[in-house]
Write a structure and sequence with these properties.
single chain; alpha/beta; Nitrilase/N-carbamoyl-D-aminoacid amidohydrolase; seven-stranded mixed beta sheet; 6 helices; 15 strands
Length: 273
C-alpha cells in the first residue's frame, strides 16, 4: 500500500535555511518509502512580519522555491504537495497568492490551489490578531487532482473551518485530502484535532495534515500536531511538536469498505429552503 508522509517544520525567516530543513525531512520520508509527501503552510518562509512574503514572491513557474520543489519531487520519485508559497498576483503588487502546488514524481507541476479563506480574525481569549487579506489575495476555485494514490483534494489551514469546501471536493471525487497549515497554538489547542477528524469522517476520506509546530523567530507559536487520519476518523500517526515526519499507509480497500458499509455520501439529501 502507498505510504503517505506529513512533514512538520518550524520555519524561520531564512528561505535558504528552510529549504535545507525541508530537503532533510523529505529525504527521510522518501527513505521510509513515502509515495506522497505534504509540506506545511509557509514552509519556505515564516517571516518576522507579514510583508516579508511579498519580498520573496515568485512568478508562476519561476524562482528558487518552485525549482526546489520540482527537484525534490524528481530526486526522491515522490508526489509532493509544496505547502504554500508566495506567488505574484495578476496586478496587486502589495499582495501575493498563497499557492499550494502539486508536483508529480518527475518534478512536473500538475496542479495549483490558491488559498481561498483568509485568516482575518481576533483569536478568542488572546491578544492575537491576524489580517491575511492585507498581504494575500484569495483564490477563486477549489482543486482536486489525480495521483497514483487517488484523487487528491487541496486545502490550506483556515479553509479547514469551512465544511462546504470539502463537500465540493468530495463531489469532485476526492479520496484523500492534503492540508498544509500553520494553526496558532491557541486555535490549534481548541479546534485542530476536532476539525481534522470531522473533515475525515464527514467526507469519508484520508487526511494528511502537515503543520508548523513550534516557536518561530517572530515570537509566534504554532500548534503542530501534524496528523494522518483515515476515513473512519482514526488517527494513524501524529507529531505533537518540532520538525519531523509522520508516516501512514493509504489503504484503498478500507476507503472503499467505509464508504460501502456506511454510505453517508450516498445518503445525502438536497432540499429546497
Amino acid at each position: 500500500m502507498p505510504i503517505l508522509a506529513a512533514i512538520q517544520m518550524v520555519s524561520g525567516p531564512s528561505v535558504a535555511e528552510n529549504l535545507a530543513a525541508a530537503a532533510d525531512l523529505l529525504a527521510r520520508a522518501a527513505a521510509d518509502g513515502a509515495r506522497l509527501a505534504v509540506l506545511p503552510e509557509n514552509f519556505a518562509l515564516m517571516g518576522r512580519g507579514e510583508g516579508d512574503k511579498v519580498a520573496v514572491r515568485e512568478a508562476e513557474g519561476e524562482g528558487p522555491i518552485q525549482a526546489f520543489l520540482a527537484e525534490q519531487a524528481a530526486r526522491h520519485r515522490l508526489w509532493l504537495v509544496g505547502g504554500t508559497i508566495p506567488l505574484r498576483t495578476a496586478g496587486d503588487e502589495g499582495r501575493v497568492r498563497a499557492a499550494c502546488l502539486l508536483f508529480d514524481d518527475r518534478g512536473r507541476r500538475v496542479a495549483r490551489y490558491d488559498k481561498v479563506h483568509l485568516f482575518d480574525v481576533e483569536v478568542v481569549g488572546s491578544a492575537e490578531r491576524y489580517a491575511e487579506s492585507a498581504t494575500i489575495e484569495p483564490g477563486d476555485r477549489y482543486v482536486v487532482a489525480d495521483t497514483p494514490v487517488g484523487r487528491l483534494g487541496l486545502a490550506v489551514c483556515y479553509d479547514l473551518r469551512f465544511p462546504e469546501q470539502f463537500r465540493a471536493l468530495v463531489d469532485q471525487g476526492m479520496d484523500l485530502l492534503a492540508l498544509p497549515a500553520a494553526f496558532t497554538a491557541a486555535t490549534g489547542k481548541a479546534h485542530w484535532e476536532t476539525l481534522l477528524r470531522a473533515r475525515a469522517i464527514e467526507n469519508q476520506c484520508y487526511v494528511v495534515a502537515s503543520a508548523q509546530g513550534g516557536t518561530h523567530a517572530n515570537g509566534r507559536e504554532t500548534h503542530g500536531d501534524s496528523s494522518i487520519i483515515d476515513p473512519w476518523g482514526e488517527i494513524l500517526g501524529r507529531l505533537p511538536q518540532g520538525p519531523g515526519v509522520v508516516l501512514a499507509e493509504f489503504d484503498p480497500e478500507r476507503l472503499a469498505m467505509v464508504r460501502r458499509q456506511f454510505p453517508v455520501l450516498a445518503h445525502r439529501v438536497s432540499l429546497a429552503v
